[in-house]
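RECORD TYPE: inverse folding
INPUT: structure tokens
STRUCTURE:
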């Protein structure tokens, strides 16, 4: 082998070694970059999965909460319905009481007397509903018998109420409302509490 050939072979050998070194380094860098990319993708995928799970859990919690709220609301509506039925029965009994002459007339007389006493005037105007205006003669006797010192006038204009009375001063400045509707309204909140306690232990 001539010197030229040997020199050429040395140069080529060095070049091949250099090329092999560059290739190995490039492969190592490629592998490293590939490993880094895989790790990054894996981390990102795990993050996405964690985020998706967190979102799914949040949705599930919200749906469970909303379902509980709907059930609670429905339960409350059913309870309100039952309590309202109880109140309606109480109102019905008040209407039945008005129809029972023997029980109602003494009650109406008592409500008139109480109203007159509360008013405290020597004269008063008594307002009744239409059916009770027909009872004026008997009521007049009963009231004057007990409160003879009070001058009573009976309004001919009927009031809109289930029963009971409104007592006013003759000038109309003072009014004592003793109607069954007003009494029921005043007792309604108490009845609601008692009905809930009796029915649901609330």
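DESIGNED SEQUENCE:
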């Amino acid at each position: 082998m001539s010197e030229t050939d040997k020199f050429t072979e040395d140069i080529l050998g060095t070049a091949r070694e250099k090329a092999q070194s560059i290739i190995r380094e490039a492969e190592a860098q490629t592998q490293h970059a590939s490993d880094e990319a895989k790790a990054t993708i894996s981390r990102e995928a795990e993050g996405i999965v964690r985020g998706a799970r967190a979102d799914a859990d949040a949705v599930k919690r919200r749906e469970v909460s909303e379902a509980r709220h709907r059930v609670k609301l429905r339960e409350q509506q059913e309870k309100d319905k039952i309590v309202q039925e109880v109140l309606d029965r109480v109102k019905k009994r008040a209407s039945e009481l008005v129809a029972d002459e023997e029980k109602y007339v003494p009650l109406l007389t008592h409500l008139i007397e109480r109203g007159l006493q509360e008013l405290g005037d020597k004269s008063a105007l008594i307002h009744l509903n239409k059916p009770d205006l027909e009872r004026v003669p008997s009521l007049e006797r009963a009231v004057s018998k007990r409160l003879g010192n009070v001058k009573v006038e009976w309004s001919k204009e009927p009031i809109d109420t289930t029963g009971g009375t409104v007592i006013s001063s003759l000038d109309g400045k003072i009014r004592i409302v003793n109607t069954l509707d007003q009494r029921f309204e005043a007792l309604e909140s108490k009845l609601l509490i008692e009905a809930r306690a009796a029915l649901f232990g609330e």
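NOTES: The helical segments are 3-99, 101-119, 130-133, 136-146, 180-200.
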